[in-house]
Each structure stands twice: as C-alpha cells, then as structure tokens.
Amino acid sequence: MVKWSDLSEASRASTSSYAFLDFDDRPWVTPPPPEERRVAVVSSAGVHKPEDKPFAWNDHDWRSFASDQQAFRVSHASTNFDRSGFMQDRNLYLPFDRLDELVEEGALGSLAPTHYSFMGGSMTPEKFLPHAETAIATMKAEGVNTVVLAPV
Amino acid sequence: MSVLAHVFERAGLATTLVALVYDHALGQKPPRAVWVPYWYGRTFGAPNQPDLQMRVLRAALDLLDRPSWPVLETYEEEPPPTADLDSWSPSWDIEPVDEAISDAELAQRFRHDLSVLAPLHAEATRAHGWSTFGLADRSFQELEGIFVSYLLEGPTDNIPKRDRAFVIKHGSQDLTDAFSQTAAHLGGDAPFAIRRWYWTRSSFGLVMRRIGEALHDDPDAKTRVAADGLFIPREWKL
C-alpha cells in the first residue's frame, strides 16, 4: 500500500522528508535455532499502559509493557495512521497472541517478559540511539536474542 | 524502525522488521525486512483475522533464516476488503453536518452528538474490555466544555496555557478514538470510511478542523506546534 507511488502528494512530501542515517557498518547476527529464540516486540505506535506518561511530540524514549497487557493508550502525535483496528485487536500492532501460538507449537522458544514502544516518524532518528541502548540492556538482561520490529 | 533494527543487530540481537513504507526500508536498509501492502496502522493486516496475522508474522520470522545482509522481501497478500467509503455511515442516530453551519449551531450539534456518543462508547468499552480513551485525562463532559469554549471564544482561561497544547491535542485524539471504537463495535471494521466520515461529516471533525485553524493564532507556542501537522490529518485541514 505504502509505496511513494500510492501516496497523495501531501503524504509523499511529508513521508519523503524522512532523514536516513548513514551507518558505516553492516551488522548481521545469525540467530539461534527457532526453538531457542526468545522474542521481544518493538512497536513504533506510541502505545503504552494507561498509567504511563503519554508520549510528547518530540519524545524519542520508550515505554514498556508485558505481553499479557490488555489495555493500552496510543499517544503517538501523528493523526495519519489507523487506530481503529488496534482498538479492536491488539495483535494488529503487537502480535502477542500469534507469537504465543508459535511458542506453543514449538516454532519459537519463548516470549520476553518485556516489550517496547517508541513513537516513530521522527525527523531526527539519531535521537533514538541513546534510548535504543537502554532497551538493548533490558532485553539482554532478560535473555532476548530476537527482535520483531513492527512499525505503524 | 529501520534505524532501531540496525542498532539492535549491532548489539547482537537478530532482528526482523515488518515494513509499511517500502522506500524507507529500501533507503535505510535494515538487516531483514518484509514489506506488506497494508495501510499505516494495519501492520499485521486486519483486526480479528488471526490467520492473516499469522501469515504476515511467519513471513517476517522466516527472514531470520536467510544467509546474508540485507534482506527486503515483499509480502503480496492483499488485505480483506473494507466498507465502501461513499455508502458507509454510523449505525446510530447521528446526522452529518453542513460545512456552512455557524459556530453557535455547530456547538449545539457537538454537545448533542457527544451526549449520544458517550453512553454508546461506554457500552463498546464494556464489550471489548478496554478503550484507548483517556489520554487527556478528561471526561466527555470536560472535553465538551473545553472544545466548545475554544470554538466560540478562542484561547481563554478555561484552558490554562500550561496545559493547553496537551489537553487539546490529546482531547481531540480521545474523541476520535471514542467515535472510531464505537463505530467499529456497532458496525464492523471500516477504517477508511470511519475516518473519512468523522473528519468530513461529523460535528466532531468539523469542530476540530475549525479549532485547528484558530490554533495557528494561539498565543502559546506549543499549542501552535500542535496545530501545525499534529492536530488534523493532512488531507482534511481547512
């Protein structure tokens, strides 16, 4: 759906102003076998627990929640993505039920206790980097070796 | 998210990404990504479609077994059809508003429509178990007072400057979410139709679009920022 050619002129102008970061390395990790994979989900939807502080429009930090979290707020600043689907089924942003099913069938090892949301769409993505490091530290402490990233 | 994928991978975590914007993934080159043909906010296809969601998830997880960097694949399955944009309307008693309606009449319609929506939304929330409503930490009645006051009088002491940007931005999102959740609960999944009806035909959308214009002259700089791209979807700004 979202290729440049599918977008309106206004959307294309906004979306194409995204600043790419020029990395000089090409990291590549060979994951463990499926049954040993411990998975964390990272969303860009600006979702969080109702009691958490909402994202402000220049925030680059993250909020966390467990995979059995059932109630959310979505404080992403953008008005340009669909929230109605997520309000019907959290798996549209956070596929926890599907991941649980894969763990049950043995196609994955386990789900991490903690999962994350940033607020995506930043025009200054380098500001995510220090916050990514704190998420990495938590993931490693919880034995995560595999990350599913789910933008909105 | 492609930037995060790169940084996570550098830290020794294997990543896979479900990409919605093909050109972003192509430009930023995350280690592994599968591009899906779904609209913003519909990452795993559609709500309450577990088989489709699982196929998308498996497509992303399958990339973990590819041998080398970078991987950008395309997942071709189209989303299920949704409601017709032109014929859809809410399944409760709410009339569209005329764009030429006066501010005073619009305020009256807004109050009425909100008084109908609030109990329906409570019922939808009870049925589903949760709601995203509550970002502004204000009740429907409080939001009514805030938005009617801003529509008729502009920035006033009714909303202290300190809180104005936050309350207006999040209060508007709360009303959008309440309408959307109620409409989907009563009438089924209809993302594009619900969104268009809300912003172009409902009293809620018209109030927000008019306030969106007035916000550009708000004395508070943060509130002006909220008005500039964060308040009304870009295709429906006045």
Architecture overview:
The complex is a heterodimer of chains A (152) and B (238). By secondary structure, chain A is of the alpha/beta class. Chain A has one domain (33-150). Chain A has four helices and seven strands, in the order H-E-E-E-E-H-H-E-E-H-E. Chain A has helices at residues 9-15, 84-88, 96-104, 129-141, and strands at 38-43, 47-48, 63-65, 73-74, 110-111, 115-117, 146-150. In chain A, strands 1, 3, 5, 6 and 7 form a five-stranded mixed beta sheet that branches. The two termini of chain A are 13 Å apart. With 238 residues, chain B is mainly alpha-helical. Chain B has two domains: 2-74, no CATH class; 103-236, no CATH class. Chain B has a three-stranded parallel beta sheet with strand order 1-2-3, sandwiched between helices. In chain B, strand 2, helix 3 and strand 3 form a beta-alpha-beta unit. The longest helix of chain B is centred in the C-terminal third of the chain and has 27 residues, at 161-187. The two termini of chain B are 32 Å apart. The relative contact order of chain B is 0.11. Chains A and B meet through helix 1, strand 4, helix 2, helix 3 and helix 4 of A and helix 1, strand 1, helix 2, helix 3 and helix 6 of B. Strand 7 (146-150) of chain A pairs parallel with strand 1 (14-19) of chain B.
Summarize the structure.
The complex is a heterodimer of chains A (152) and B (238). By secondary structure, chain A is of the alpha/beta class.
Question: How would you describe this structure in keywords?
Answer:
heterodimer, A: alpha/beta, 4 helices, B: 9 helices, globular
Instruction: State the domain count of chain B.
Output: 2
Distance between the termini of chain A: 13 Å
The overall strand count of chain A is 7
Please give the alpha-carbon distance between the first and last residues of chain B: 32 Å
- The figure for the number of domains of chain A is 1
| H and E order of chain B | HEHEHEHHHHHH
- The rounded Rg of chain B comes to 21 Å
Spatial extent as radius of gyration of chain A = 16 Å
- Beta-strand percentage of chain A? 15-25%
The largest sheet of chain B, given as strand count, sense and whether it forms a barrel, is: 3 strands, parallel
**H/E element sequence of chain A:** HEEEEHHEEHE
Query: Helix- and strand-based class of chain B?
Result: mainly alpha
